[in-house]
Please model this.
Amino acid sequence: MSNQPEAPEKGKDFVRQIIDKDLETGKYGDRVQTRFPPEPNGYLHIGHAKSICLNFGIAEDYNGRCNLRFDDTNPVKEDTEYVDSIKEDVHWLGFDWKENEFFASDYFERFYAVAELFIRAGKAYVDDLSAEEIREYRGTLKEPGKNSPYRDRTPEENLELFRKMRDGDFGDGERVLRAKIDMAAPNVVLRDPTLYRIKHADHHRTGDAWCIYPMYDFAHCLSDYFEGITHSICTLEFENNRPLYDWVLDALIECIGSGACGDDTTAVTGGGATPQERPYQYEFARLNISGTVLSKRKLIQLVQEGHVDGWDDPRMPTISGFRRRGYTPESIRDFCDRIGVAKADSMVDFALLEHCVRQDLNERAPRYLGVLHPVKLIIENYPEDQEDVFEMPLHPEDESVGTRKVPFCRELYIERADFMEDAPKKFFRMSVGREVRLRFAYYVTCTGFEKDAEGNITEIRATYDPATKGGWSDDGRKVKGTMHWVSARHAAKAEVRLYDRLFTEENPGNPGGDKTFLDCINPDSKEVRTECWVEPALADMQPGTHFQFERTGYFIADAKDHKPGDKLVFNRTATLRDSWAKIAKKG
Model:
């Protein structure tokens, strides 16, 4: 009988509906216990953030508990580096598991005890077939499988062989332990799945103490049971494996109930949940975002083959990548709240995630001036020995953020795109004979410019009106264009990294034709500008500080390479233009 919901009530996702019903019926008393169970074989990505927010969010909503459990049953791919990065990411998102940190490897002895229990009960057997032969015997979706010739070994034979497996008497792949279920089961997962395999490899926590390791589907449900999890929430790709999750727990409960454990029940279960409180699995749609890939295999390939600059490359959809790019935990949690929890897969527009970070940073990010593609502007009638200092607000809509002082002199840097030699009528920035406003400074009028031999503009000349100090005039004349600037004499030099989408396709994971996701990599996803000039206040900015370059976008001082007073490195988080707002308005 399915434990899945029919349809969600309006205003509440289907998982919380299930929990409400369980609380009403007293299924677990008043307990609500979830878990976030990452495998420590890579860095977490934005899809994991959805699961983190769901599992920890439910625990918060119901005054429950959420365990952080590392499903570390594959020693070949796991590392403490990944464990540490996962902890950092979960904490950064704003969640705390407190004392509830666990590892599947904590239960290796108990997993083994359950396996022996299943062998004695005739529910598992040691198979000598090779991996290829097991696949051949399994059958297809249309044809049933056939029994292994080793399926009818006696419990005594199986127990002896399994113990030899543990003792290291066999090589990798020589034997496996399989559940004895039904080789004709319509669900292929139930056709005597493997429970244990031999791997002579050191484990990141247990070293060489073990040479047999439990399969994920065997260890995961037992870990839930040992820890007293009430609601085991996972993504839809595990829906087909739910019957196996149920079979393992039902088989264990049957063995406990029959007294097969003897006096060793606690040694098997660890004193965890009672049979009446066994957990159930519920699946929700995984996160799919346009213009990126969230396959761990593909992300590992991007890193190992050098297509990106590591797991925390700001173009990567990893949580550490988003953090380094300047996304805030609040923006990612807001994004996860907006997309909700559903049963059907769908594609979420990346623009929504950008919208969330823009909204958050618009409220909190202080404003500064920076010129990323500079050209010099010389104000000919401004005295060479004169300087002004303008007090500018750090946030135009929040006076409490304060102000900063910005120096001004005869020679400035402006954006090269803010000048046009032959400007059209609707170009409201600088052109010969046109008056514009320098933000918070003066009105200036362009009088001419210089070019080099290649035709590039190297210098722009202008005059200023001293009566417009502060960037305003009392005589009623209108100036349509406003430009940002920095003082050439006082500016600090900076490196600015402009990041764009890593892929050119909306669905790079399945681009069609003969293309692979690597063929979809955007060659212009990272632009590094080393000749940028910023107002002097940014010279002392600390790594990890968010801010906005006025008229340009949101940025962050790079967490690794930025050195205050020495080397200034800023990463662009997002441009100011919000495409999602336009999409939502049209919708």
